[in-house]
UniProtKB/TrEMBL annotation:
This is UDP-N-acetylenolpyruvoylglucosamine reductase. Its cofactor is FAD. Its EC number is 1.3.1.98. The active site is at R174, S260 (proton donor), E356. GO terms for cellular component: cytosol.
Length: 362
């Protein structure tokens, strides 16, 4: 397990042209005119000097939530600051810090191996630790905000490191302060987690209920564990989430995708009730604030898009929320398909689907 902070590096940042095909999980062919890798916090001032020479800065982690154009003239910085450390073993929580460039799944795996439980529902999400707060990543009933202690970010124009709390980050459903404002304003360099002790399993999602043969999961299990009568451990849940995701979601290494392409719309109860009256199969979930979350994948499926293709872009045949690159798609192909889906869903349900990935405009 690497220590954090990592050994300092003051290696100069020399921008170079870079093929970004391997830096975006949609596998879109994209080139950066000026690309640098940030390996250490010691290089942040130099990065600000460089950023002053460009109109915009694109901060890139694993490119798993991005739609990139064919050419990017802005400065692109890939964040590769690594390291993981236990800050404190408090009676009520493990406090862990990870460098922004760590692989998210690698970090979750380390935590489970060390017995720092609490992130297992977020296993196998692609990308980096630094990007996780940007859209407050979530899956299977846990979101980053539930396990967040704080982060350290560099303000590129003001040239200062800032410690931020959850309140500062303004976390919301797949959203935070980092998704708003000027792109490239902040570079997150480290994230701290508070993993509650004692640990409690989160097993509400239907796929997990089915996997563990619990009461709430109806229907035949798509995949289930070998029977065991004991309560699932964090490692069991980690393995379950990995199994379920591998079965249901396309592996970006095999077929280009950016995960869910649209957010699940949040609507007032009156809107959901009216829709449910017209469409009794509507899939929706009550939210703590009284609103309802509609399953966008269901809306798209009902419009007949599952498994369909438009140009070189397609809709995944097992999960309609995922748009895929059929081989040679461009950002324009992906966005044309997204627009067609948005039109159909709007015409049928009067719901405007909002893209989840960052669409980088050149
Ligand atoms: P990138 O795509 O590189 O960047 C995303 C955004 O974060 C950009 O705005 C970028 O500028 C910004 N950013 C990146 N790094 C930093 C940094 N260090 N400082 C400041 N800004 C930064 N998401 C979920 O929430 N839940 C899921 O279950 C989930 N499953 C997925 C499954 C698949 C197969 C795929 C392809 C994607 C999935 N995603 C999911 C989306 C994606 O994995 C997450 O949003 C992830 O956090 C993106 O990480 P990244 O490093 O690839 O970010
Ligand atoms: P799923 O379990 O088939 O559920 C469909 C949708 O219903 C999900 O989007 C989920 O919302 C919602 N949902 C299901 N059970 C819920 C409950 N008990 N309470 C509240 N909401 C509930 O979804 P899936 O596609 O297989 O994905 C499984 C999990 O991985 C989901 O949490 C999903 O968000 C996450 N995931 C995210 C991405 C991404 O790119 N963002 C990609 C793949 C998977 P939520 O999305 O709000 O959880």
């Amino acid at each position: 397990m690497p220590d954090f902070p990592q050994a300092s590096s003051t290696a100069p940042l020399t921008p170079a042209r870079q093929d970004l095909t391997q830096f975006n999980t949609l596998g879109l062919s994209a080139w950066a005119d000026a690309f640098v890798t940030l390996r250490s916090v010691d290089q942040l001032s130099a990065l600000s000097d460089l950023a002053d020479q460009y109109s915009r800065l694109l901060v890139l982690g694993g490119g798993s939530n991005m739609v990139l154009p064919a050419r990017i003239e802005s400065l692109v910085t890939h964040v590769a600051v690594t390291g993981v450390r236990l800050i404190e073993a408090r009676p009520d929580a493990w406090i862990i810090e990870a460098g922004a460039g760590e692989s998210w799944h690698g970090f979750v795996t380390t935590c489970v191996e060390q017995g720092w439980d609490g992130l297992e529902n977020l296993a196998l999400i692609p990308g980096t630790v630094g990007a996780a707060p940007v859209q407050n990543i979530g899956a299977y009933g846990v979101e980053l905000a539930d396990r967040f202690q704080g982060l350290t970010a560099w303000n590129v124009r003001q040239r200062r490191l800032v410690d931020m709390t959850a309140t500062d980050c303004q976390f919301a459903y797949r959203d935070s302060i980092f998704k708003h404002g000027e792109p490239g304003e902040w570079i997150i360099v480290a994230v701290r987690f508070a993993l509650p002790r004692p640990w409690q399993a989160v097993l509400e999602y239907p796929d997990l209920q089915r996997y563990f043969g619990l009461s709430g999961g109806t229907g035949a299990p798509a995949i289930s564990r070998t029977h065991s009568s004991s309560a699932p451990t964090a490692r069991d849940i980690f393995n379950a989430v990995c199994d379920i995701r591998r079965q249901k979601l396309p592996d970006p290494a095999v077929i280009g995708n950016a995960g869910s392409f649209f957010k699940n719309p949040l609507v007032e109860a009156s809107v959901r009730d009216a829709l449910l009256a017209q469409h009794p199969g509507l899939v929706s979930y009550p939210q703590p604030d009284g609103r309802y979350k509609l399953a966008a994948g269901w809306l798209i499926d009902q419009c007949g898009w599952k498994g369909k293709q438009l140009g070189a872009a397609g809709v995944h045949d097992r999960q309609a929320l995922v748009l895929v690159n059929k081989g040679s798609a461009t950002a324009a192909d992906i966005m044309a398909l997204a627009a067609a889906i948005q039109r159909d869903v709007s015409a049928r349900y009067h719901i405007q689907l909002e893209p989840e990935p960052v669409i980088w405009q050149q």
